[in-house]
């Protein structure tokens, strides 16, 4: 068992998410590995045993920093893009029909960054998930705003020198039962996109 893969999170009392096939049935850990290429930011997202879970491919030449998220069969789930001319750094996801379904906004807080993910669950419930921390932290949490319950944790090994100097990161994301794994992955990708934009 690798570092950060042994975390078990309590189930959220109701399903939270848009993509019901990706609602976690138990506490799940995904390994997110950033891969830089000429085509843009790509990510390998797999289970700890190496089995692929999502395919994520970026489009470097896109003005909106497009990142396409697909399932393991290559079916397009959603695309993440950056909004321009906004007070706070904002990313959004649109489905294959071009409809905006999810927004992540970065807000400054004392001592770091707060990311707020807003969307409507499949049940019709309005949701807000709050991510506290940034890519300089070794651990961050995502919580449901109303209850404060942690629905995901992120662990990154900041002492991995090879990845640090290569500008690429690997981190483990543990997701609570009843929470949409695709939404949590999207929030992590948005955080990574913001980090890359601030460094460019």
Describe the protein.
It contains two helices and twelve strands. With 200 residues, the chain is mainly β. The protein has a twelve-stranded antiparallel β-barrel with strand order 1-2-3-4-5-6-7-8-9-10-11-12. A hairpin with a 6-residue loop joins strand 9 (126-132) and strand 10. The longest helix is centred in the last third of the chain and has 19 residues, at 181-199. 34% of the residues are buried.
Number of helices: 2
Largest sheet: 12 strands, antiparallel, barrel
Give helix % range: 10-25%
Question: Stretches where pLDDT falls below 50 for ≥5 residues?
Answer: 161-166
Fraction of residues in β-strands: 35-45%
The first-to-last residue Cα distance is: 35 Å
Q: Average pLDDT across residues?
A: 83
Q: How many individual β-strands? A: 12
Structural class: mainly beta
Provide the succession of SSEs. Answer: EEEEEEEEEEEHEH
Strand order of the largest sheet: 1-2-3-4-5-6-7-8-9-10-11-12
Q: What shape does the CA trace take?
A: globular
C-alpha-based Rg, rounded: 16 Å
Please specify the SSE layout and strand pairing.
Elements: E1 28-37, E2 40-46, E3 52-58, E4 67-71, E5 76-82, E6 90-94, E7 100-109, E8 112-120, E9 126-132, E10 139-144, E11 150-156, H1 161-166, E12 170-175, H2 181-199
Antiparallel strand pairs: 1-2, 1-12, 2-3, 3-4, 4-5, 5-6, 6-7, 7-8, 8-9, 9-10, 10-11, 11-12
